[in-house]
Amino acid sequence: MIEEPCSIPEEVRSKLEKQQYRIAGSHSAVKTCAWLKHSLKGEGDCYKSKFYGINSHRCLQCTPSTIWCNLKCIFCWRSASWYNKKMMDCKVDEPKLIVDEMIRQQQKLVAGYNKHPKVPEYMYKEALTPKHAAISLSGEPTFYPKISELIDEFHSRDMTTFLVTNGTTPEVLEKLDPLPTQLYVTMIAPTKESFEKTARPSDKKAWEKIMQTVEILPSLNTRIVMRLTLVPGYNMIEPQKFRELFLRSEADYLEPKGFMSVGDARQRLSYEIMPRFEKIEQFSKQIIEDSDLKIIDYKEDSAVTLIAKEDYSARKTLGK
User: Fold this and answer.
1) Which helix (H) or strand (E) holds 134?
2) Across the chain, how many H-helices and E-strands are there?
3) Can you tell me the distance from the alpha carbon of 23 to that of 205, in angstroms, rounded to the nearest whole number?
């Protein structure tokens, strides 16, 4: 019987808190993103707001697996020094406790905006009650063994969910019940060789597992986005192979986005190689070339486009 709780080492916890993470329970965390702050002050919203209707000031950026991942992606802004590939040899927190603590910590993070001259009182009050959970902050969320129950707990509170996964746990994705409101699968690279160079996996069969995920995605009855985080010289290659993987997956949307030189990614990738919107747009056009795919939306300041076979009337209604 597992007795030792899953926990974050004190030195790592201290570093996280200095970076404005707030630990929820023993192994989960939240962190407000810059767009939440911009949204509160009327200075713009996240591209997820433009693409999918999410209210940025009511978005809970969170993770149940803060330091547990099986990849060390070159573009990741989290610290690889926190990397811990397993989450099965320790006792995990219950979903209700995690969500209670996440919301409590989020409320503490936004408390400083009370009476802020640029923040309307009603928006501040709304921010205290998140309506959307972006399960994506750090680590691989599907390593949390009660991920289905966590999604259910969010849904029971009338919240929508994005679950972001690296695709290396097809056996978990296949059994998700309930499914998230939207499933994000990060397609890190178009080939095994470029994947291993970019993702630096600890699991020698990670690429094969991602290919299994691509095959099961058509059977998952929820909205699915294939996400590309593009780095020149690593994975910003062979656009036609990205297209092939997207079409095989039957995902609803393909989201090519330039990596951001922020956080610990700055130690591995220089600011100068960060692709601007023009390069992402050009690469997106190469992806859709000679196909029935279209660029249906974009956000220049986030260096991201949105690709699909057709636009959908319900696309921008997740936050409604």
Assistant:
1) strand 132-135
2) 11, 10
3) 31
Tokens representing 175 are 């059994």
- Whether the model pTM is above 0.85: yes
Is 161 in contact with 104 (CB distance < 8 Å)? no
- Cβ atoms of 80 and 68 closer than 8 Å: no
Average pLDDT over residues 161-172: 97
Is the bond into 178 cis (omega within 30 degrees of 0)? yes
What are the pLDDT digits (tens) for 257-308? Answer: 999 877 777 788 787 899 999 999 999 999 999 999 999 999 999 999 999 9
Tell me the DSSP string of 264-298: GGGGTS-GGGSPPHHHHHHHHHHHHTTSS-EEEEE
Residue 1 has pLDDT above 60, yes or no: no
The residue extents of the domains of the chain are 10-308
**Tokens encoding 195:** 């994947």
What values do phi and psi take at 252, rounded to 5? -75, -40
CA angle 315, 317, 320 (to 5 degrees): 170
Q: What is the number of other CB atoms lying within 10 angstroms of the CB of residue 69?
A: 26
Question: How confident is the model over 88-110, as pLDDT tens digits?
Answer: 778 999 999 999 999 999 999 99
Question: What is the structure's pLDDT at 263?
Answer: 74
Is residue 298 a contact partner of residue 288, using CB atoms and an 8 Å limit?
no
Q: Residue 242 and residue 256: Cα distance in Å, rounded?
A: 10
Calculate helix-pair angle for 239-249, 206-216, nearest 10 degrees. 50
Tell the CATH topology of 10-308: TIM Barrel (3.20.20)
The first and second tokens of residue 247, run together, are: 């079409």
